[in-house]
C-alpha cells in the first residue's frame, strides 16, 4: 500500500509537471510574439576570396605596425574570441587570451575587447558606437567614424570609401560597410595594434604603411589579386577592412543556439529552467528585453547601467565616461552600447571594463544597481583593473544619477530566479557548434611566417 501511494504521488506529480510545460510554452510564445523576437538569420553567402584573405590577415601580425600583435591576440578563438581578461594587451605582449603576458613596453587596451560573434547586420560598432552607417536620406547612407576623411556626404579619403562601398554593393547585408570600416580603427589604435613607434602618424599615412607592409609579403599579392581584381593592383586599407570583415561575418556567426531552435518551433530545445529564465528575460520584472531585443537581442542603443569603473580609464582623469567621450554630449555620460548576447558566456569577463567575471555577477548587479555600485568589492580585481578605482569610487553618486530610470529600482529577483536567468543566458544562447568551429583555426599558418599567438 505504501509503495502504491508513493507511485501515485510520483505519477500525479509527473502529470502536473508535464501538464505545466504547455502552459509555460504558451506563456513564452505570447511574450516572444509581443517582443517581436525571431531566430537570428544566417549571414548571406560568403565571398570566398574575401574570406580567405581576411582569415590570413586576422591571424597575421603583419597587420600591426611593429609586426608584434594580431587581431587574434586579443580576440583569441581558443578563448571565445575574447582576451579572457578585463583588458587586452597590445603590441609586444606574449601569448593570447588570459595567458597573454605584458612586456615592459606593452600597453593595455583602455576597454574590454568587445566580442566578435554575429557582427553581421549591426549598424554600430565599439562600446561607444564610434563607427556607424546610417541613412542620410532615402537614397544615401553615410559613415560616421573617428576619421573625418571617411565621414559624411563628401569624404575626402575617396579611394578608401570606394573600396568599402564596392564591397557593400556585392554584399546583401546593408550594414556590411560599417563592419568593414570598424576594422580599420584597432589597426590604427596606439594601445592595440599601432604601437608607440608610429603614434604620431596620421591615420591616412599609417594605413598606407600597413598596406605596403602587407603587400611586401609575396603570399598576399596573389590573395589580394584574386579578391579584388577590379583594383588592378591599387590596394588601400579599405580592401583590408572588407576582407577581414567578411571573415568575421562568416566565421564567427552563431545562429544555431537552443533559443534559435526554440524560436523555430522545437519546444524541447530548452529545459524547463531555461524556459523560466526566458520568461523572466522578457518580463516586466527582470526588464532584460527593454534593451536586449530584436533578432540580435540588442537595440544597438547606448545605456547607462551603473557599471563600477576599474582599469586605466579612457578619460584623462582615469574614468570612462562612455559615449560622451566621443559625442561630447552630457546626455551620453556613462552610456555604453547594448551588447548582443549569443555566445555571451564564452566572451567573459563582462561589461565595457570586464569588472564582472561571471554571468551571475552581471545579473546580481542589475538586480540592485545602487547596492552594486556602493558595495562593489574592487579588491577582487587584478592590479591593472584596480588602477584608478579608488579615485573613481568618489564618483559613485554621479554614476548612479546617470543610470537609466528603469534600472534604479531593485528588481527583487530571488536566488531561484537569478539561477534560471543565468541558465537561459549561459545555455540557451550558446551555439553548440561554436567550439568545434573555433578549434578549426588552431595551428593556422599565415603568409608572413610570423608566429601565431
Describe this structure in words.
This protein is mostly helical. It folds into two domains: 48-251, Cytochrome Bc1 Complex, Chain D, domain 2, CATH 1.10.760.10; 258-428, Cytochrome c-like domain (Cytochrome Bc1 Complex, Chain D, domain 2, Orthogonal Bundle). It is 41% helix and 4% strand. The chain has helices at residues 2-34, 48-59, 71-74, 158-169, 176-182, 184-187, 190-194, 203-215, 218-227, 237-251, 258-263, 272-281, 324-327, 359-367, 369-374, 383-386, 389-393, 396-402, 415-428, 434-439, and strands at 124-125, 131-137, 140-144, 302-303, 336-337.
Sequence-ordered SSE layout with sheet pairings:
Blueprint: H1 2-34, H2 48-59, H3 71-74, E1 124-125, E2 131-137, E3 140-144, H4 158-169, H5 176-182, H6 184-187, H7 190-194, H8 203-215, H9 218-227, H10 237-251, H11 258-263, H12 272-281, E4 302-303, H13 324-327, E5 336-337, H14 359-367, H15 369-374, H16 383-386, H17 389-393, H18 396-402, H19 415-428, H20 434-439
Antiparallel strand pairs: 1-2, 2-3, 4-5
Helix pairs in contact: 1-12, 2-9, 2-10, 4-5, 4-10, 5-10, 12-19, 14-19
In summary, what is this structure?
With 453 residues, the protein is mainly alpha-helical. Helix content is 41%, strand content 4%.
Helix and strand composition category: mainly alpha
Distance between the termini: 68 Å
Q: Widest sheet: strand order? A: 1-2-3
Report the count of strand segments: 5
- Taking Cα atoms only, what radius of gyration do you get, to the nearest Å? 23 Å
Order of helices and strands: HHHEEEHHHHHHHHHEHEHHHHHHH
* Largest sheet entry: 3 strands, antiparallel
Instruction: Tell me the name of the CATH homologous superfamily of the largest domain.
Output: Cytochrome c-like domain
Q: What's the tally of helices?
A: 20
**What are the segments in which pLDDT stays under 50 over at least 5 consecutive residues?**
1-20
